[in-house]
Design goal:
mainly alpha, about 0% strand, single chain
């Protein structure tokens, strides 16, 4: 189940409270899939692990927060 926007905002506010500011956001979207060098991946592998509405939409929500 994807995190709610309020949960994302809570996490960001917690980081700012703990560390004083937030300098970097690292979005690691994907659900796994095959492992190996990018040049050896086929499009189906990429689609399975990265092009996933849940993963990419949550990345967008987090980045906008």
């Amino acid at each position: 189940m994807p995190p709610a926007k309020k949960d994302i905002k809570w996490a960001i506010n917690r980081a700012i409270k703990e560390f004083g500011r937030l300098d970097v956001v690292y979005n690691n979207a994907g659900l796994g899939g095959t492992v190996g060098p990018l040049e050896k991946k086929v499009e189906e592998d990429f689609d399975e692990s990265v092009i996933d509405g849940y993963s990419l939409s949550q990345m967008l929500v987090f980045s906008r927060s």
